[in-house]
Each structure stands twice: as structure tokens, then as C-alpha cells.
Amino acid sequence: MRKTFLVSLMAIVLTACQTGADSTNNSITIGYIGPLTGDASPYGVDTLNGMLLKASEINAAGGINGKLIEIVTEDGRCTGADAASAAQKLIHVDKVIAIIGGQCSGETLAAAPIAEEAGIIMISPLSSSPDVTDAGDFIFRDYPSDALKTEAMAAYFAEKGYNKVAVITENTDFAVAFRDALKKNLGEDALVFDEVVEPNTKDFRSLVTRLNDVDFDVFFPNGQSAATIGAMLQQVREQGFEQLAVSHDVAQDQSLLQVAPIASEGLQVINVPAVSDDSEFGSKFLEQYGATQAAMAFAAHAYDAMGVLVEAIGTVGTDGIAIRDYLNDLTAYEGVVGAFSFDANGDVVGIPYVLWEVQDGAYVNLRNIDVN
Amino acid sequence: MTQLIANGLIAGSLAALIAGGLALVYGVLGVFNLALGQMVLIGGYSTWWFHQVAGWALFPSIVMGISIGALLSWFTFEVFIRPFYKLHRFLPLVTTIALSLILDGMILLLFEQRPRSILSGAKETMHIAGAYVSKEQIIMIVLTMGILFIFAYVLHSTSFGRKIQAVVQHDHAAMSLGIRAPALHRFVFILSGVLASCGGIYMGIDTNLSPTIAFSITIKAYAAIIAGGKGNFWGAVFCAYLIAFSEQFVVGIHWFGAFYVPPGYQNTVALAFIIILLLVKPSGLFSSASRSA
Description:
The structure holds 2 protein chains of 2 kinds.
Chain A: H1 2-17, E1 27-34, H2 41-60, E2 68-75, H3 80-93, E3 98-100, H4 105-118, E4 121-124, E5 139-141, H5 146-160, E6 165-170, H6 173-186, E7 191-197, H7 205-209, E8 218-222, H8 226-238, E9 244-247, H9 254-259, E10 268-271, H10 280-289, H11 296-316, H12 320-329, E11 333-335, E12 338-342, E13 348-349, E14 353-359, E15 362-369
Parallel strand pairs in A: 1-2, 1-3, 3-4, 4-5, 6-7, 6-8, 8-9, 9-10
Antiparallel strand pairs in A: 10-14, 11-12, 12-13, 14-15
Helix pairs in contact in A: 2-11, 3-4, 5-6, 11-12
Chain B: H1 2-29, H2 36-53, H3 58-85, H4 91-111, E1 125-128, E2 131-134, H5 135-157, H6 159-169, H7 171-176, H8 181-206, H9 214-227, H10 233-252, H11 266-280
């Protein structure tokens, strides 16, 4: 008697756990994974808002073939472990059709095998680690790989005659992969100072002191968030080093300018083109969500990732394999970040790079860098 | 080398402030406060808010930051510590863990997740005897020394200090001699909150504050008080400096002219050092025989 009661109780509890997402056929559920808390959260918040903006526009226009989009968000906390459990939950509990995410490369790489096994499409708006290229057939991204960016950076250093680079790397999937790719492009000897620090470290002083013993042309703060890059830059400048600092996407972040306003002056960044606040997308975004925490381009990439996904679902339906084939065969999607398509590995084709410099507390476009 | 010493003093001052207050709390009340790191952050973040958002001058913002830290620790004492700590010494361990989770959430809600820096302007660095230090860092190092001297004077040369020492040695015996131990408990707890806020303000001025660092602050402070001999104020202060210096020297020195320790091991080496120290002297470096913890 008691046992049957327990069993029926469990059945009730289990049914209660099933969210309404898959029970109705009038909606299409799409998952989101990204860092919503922690040091990396500014880009989690921006990409989520970019995705939500697209979804609300589609829903306002009647949804995808009459079905409304429902979004389930999960906090990946910029770590593989959290992103993996987020992916498990989204795929097996919420039964999502596809996932926009992860944002940090560590999130994407950990969630990828789970999505791959379930045949669920995952489009990352922000992960740039070269490892994402081989993450699987169902894994796409509309953000260019660091393999290309490190090539662009190496070409820039060669052009300027900088052959001694000092790099401090934060121990995360993204930053370490970037360091490795840069090392491959520049040659072993070019990294005259190459140290890896634990994530979220704020005290680099003694490490920076050691820079006195090396002769370097360029300092490269290779962090995962504006908080650590800001602390690195500040402590390098405090100890009197005046060499040029060059960094990647993460350093193009408004909160870096607030955290290290003087130290970030003159910093050069190689990144994707910006999306202006005054552009059509920018003003729409500002009206809905206010100023971005990191950068408008991050929101735009998420908006386009959602856009290309919606287009695919609208054309071929919700089957993972059909969406995958559609994305692979796509000739060009006209997004707010430009017209892009995907190569055989799911990497984006068609997004160029820009060399930025911080001048008087703002990022200024120095010139475009072509990548092929 | 002088730069390494300066680095050690910068990191050590911060650690000593936080650990010193904690050691007093442990010595006088015998309880663990695991929400300490969050108190550090709240002090720093409130100062940031008054200075950067409300637009107050730096000095009144710091005063407000410290006051909010004091109010928070008073509230913590009345709600999360006082009703429990006489029942069992370990109960506040649980209640302050709960508090730390609540405060973590509050910090995220009130101040958002992005990094915050209290001073947005330039920091002037000076070149002193081969070391670069900023004006703020010198002020902080001197101020911490000053606070420690005041503590030394109060603890060892005033009747109030002797009362604290008496309560540290034996709570009930001190009460039977007419010392109002409960009032002293409250005072010492608020004092530790004030010191923690000062630490947070310093951190926000020197580098930046982010919501995720609270727990590692708590852990480091506990490492210092345990290595220093539980409840021993000077032991904790000494060990806080010792840990900070060893962290800086471990990564900054070219060991035997042959290799550098990878900076990823910075925290590990300091904690390994403490473990070895405790193996040699299990009761801590400066343990007092009178209190058996």
C-alpha cells in the first residue's frame, strides 16, 4: 500500500517536473547557455539580450510558421562543468530544438559532445577557440575562430617588426588555446615571457616584476574577462613598463575602460567589426535593454545566430539533421554583423577583423585587417 | 628585489587587515564567520557606489563604506551569531554560510556582475629604492601599520585591552570578575566587520572588485589565523604577511638561478607552506596554551 502510494507520488512529482515546454505543440523551445554570473557575465548578459531581441521580434510577427519561440536560459558560468549540466538539462528536461551558446569557449566545448550525441544544433555567437572547429557536425558559430585571429595578429606583429612578445595567460580554455595558436603562428622563440595564471587572479605584481629581466616589444594581456585584463594592464603600467599592449576580443569591453581607465589608454585590440550604438540594430537594442555591459557586437552576433537558426527552422522544420544540412548549404545570411555563411566545420565565413586602439577612453577603428 | 618586498607589503597589508579582525572574533567569541569575504566586498562595493554612482567625494564615500560594513556586521551579529553561538560554537558556522549565500545574491542584484573600480582616475606611481608603488598603496601600507600599532597599544596597555585578553583566556572567569563579556563580543564582531570593509575598500581602490572573489578571501584569512595559532591576533597578522610575502617570492624569484615557479602554483605553495608549518607545530605558530579550541 505504502509502496504504491510512494510510486504514485513519484509519478506525480515527475510529471510535475516536466515543464510545459514540450507539452504544447504551439511553441518552439530554444535553449541559451552563457555566463550570467561571474567575471565573464557582461558578455553573457549582452548575448542573451541579443537573442531575446530576435525572438521577441519573431514572436511579434507571428512566430515561426505560426509557432511562438520560447527561450529557456541556463547559466554556464563560463565553466565547462556548469555548461555541460546546463546542456543536459536543456536537451533532456526542457527538450529544446536547438541551443544558442555557449559563450565562453570552455562552455561550448563542454556542451558540444552532449548536443552532438543528441543531434541538437548548437550555434555559438561568441566562442572563438580554434578547438570549436572540430567540436562536431551539429556545432556552429557565427564568430570567427582564433586560428584566423592569431594569424592576423602574427601578421600585424611581423609588419611592425615586433618579435619579442610577453604574454600572461589566464588558465581558461579560450585564453590557453589563443596562446597556443599565437605561439604556433609567431614561432616558439617569439614568446619571450609566457606564463599562465589561475582564473580570477587579481595580483600579478611579482609576475610583472619579472618582466624587468626580459626584453620585449609587446605586452599581451591574455585574460578571459575585463576584470583580469584590467588588473594586468594596470599593474604592468604601475611598474613603469611603457611597451605597446595588444590584446583580443575580450579587451574590447566598456567595463575595461571603467576599471582601468588610464592603463588601458593606447591598448590595441584585434577584434571583429563593431556594431555602432547608432546603427539600426544598436538603437533597437538600446531601446529594449539599455546600454550593453560589454559590447554591441556581442549582442549582434547572438541576434544573428538566433536569426540564422530561425531561418533554418522556418525553412526545414525542427529536425536537427535537416537544420544542420540547411546551415551547411547556406550561401549567405544577411545579418547585422554582415553577410556570412558556414564552412564544412561549422565555422563562420565572411566576418573580417579590425585593428582597434583605445584613444581618450574610446575604441577607435585604426584599420581593417583582411583574413582569408 | 625591493619590488618583491613592496609587492609583499601591498598584498600583506590587505590580508593582515582582514585576518586580524577575524582572529579577534575567533579569540573572543570562539566562532567562525564564513561570510567574511562577502563583508569585504560589501564594504568595497558600497564605497564604489557612493563615489562613482552617487558622485560623493572619496573620503565621505569611504566613511559611508565603513559605516555600512559596521552596520552589516552588527546586524549579522544580532541575527546570525548571538542567538546561536552560546548553544554551540559550530552553529554560527552554518548560519554564516547561509548569510554568505544571501549576500552573494544581494551583491549580484545591487552591484551587477561586472568588475568595479572605486578610483577611475590615474594612480600616480613613484619610484622608491628600485620599486614602483602608487600613492594609494603607500597610504594603505602605512595605514595598516598605524592600525596595527593602535591595536598593539589598546590590547597591551589599556584596561580595555586587558578585558579583551581576559575574555580570550576565559569567558566565564572574566564575567565573574565583572567584565561585560557579551557587550565585548558585539564590539569585537563589529570591529572585525569594520576591518573587513577597509580591506574591501582598499581592494577596490588598488585593483577592482568582482562578486566571485569572496570565498577565496575568506579561505586566505582562515589560513592565516589557523597557522598563526587560533585566536591569536598577532599570530594571524604575522601569518597573513607571511603568506602574502611567500606568494610574491615564490613566483618572483629565479630559484637557484635555474627556474621560475609557474604562477599557477602561487596559491598552492602558500597553502602547502601552512600545511608543513602545522605538521611541525600543530597548534599554530603562536598558539596560547590557555584556550583549547
